[in-house]
């Protein structure tokens, strides 16, 4: 079946963590009762993105397994409190969505977590928290690097490196054109919807990032506080890492090899590496079929 046929749209739901802190998720559903072939999958987007970034993958996965995509706190339609951008709370947000979506109905139920970039870090924290209830962890181009050590930057310095030319935000049309031009061949209605979900159009006609500055800063501080060795050595579930960037990804591969070696020394299974070659960071857009296949394999193992 063509994953884009019918333009199926997911349902949106909110899980309340505490009053004033609600986490939104998109429920893509799954095959009819009794037809699922594998454990459910929870998808976690990257920095400044939303659950809609996973659409090309979610459309494919839902044909076989129950599929849900979260909006991390401060992103998308989730609340943006001034606190909670920590390993413990971000991991708990993911667990709360898994439970609230009915993906973990029993103590023995399990779920596969797949995270992109920053979402790979959050997925690792959630996997650590879930313990045996995590059936697998898929890190999509992120989640195994220590950015603080590798870059030597502060969170503020790294944030400034992410700033884009102001002309991109001069109008919605300019913003969408910029995103389309990353790779026109993979642009379509789903990608436009994902792009629109990351900005807000103001009355003057320009757009501004939808992520509030304090939420972005808190998320980046969480990234810089991440200890990949300390976290991934506490994840007993099988781990798969999808690496993009081709020859330019040497640093990512070196960091991944270090974590893999540490896990093997600790008598865990090693990290399975899937290299998708010289594509951009948004692997779900550029290689959706390959990403879907990796996640589905984790859900069926």
Number of strands: 10
**What is the first-to-last residue Cα distance?**
23 Å
Low-confidence segments, ≥5 residues, pLDDT <50? Answer: 1-6
Read across the widest sheet, the strand sequence of neighbours is 1-2-4-3-5-6-9-10
Secondary-structure element order, as H and E?
EEEHEHEHEHHHHEEHHEHEHH
Structure summary:
The protein is of the alpha/beta class and 301 residues long. The protein is built from twelve helices and ten strands.
What does this molecule look like?
By secondary structure, the protein is α/β, with parallel strands linked by helices. Helices cover 38% and strands 18% of the residues. The protein has 12 helices and 10 strands. The strands form 2 sheets. It has an 8-stranded mixed beta sheet with strand order 1-2-4-3-5-6-9-10, sandwiched between helices. It has a two-stranded antiparallel ribbon with strand order 7-8. Strand 7 and strand 8 form a beta hairpin. Helix 1 packs across helix 12, helix 2 packs across helix 3 and helix 6 packs across helix 7. It is globular and about 55 Å long. The N terminus is likely disordered.
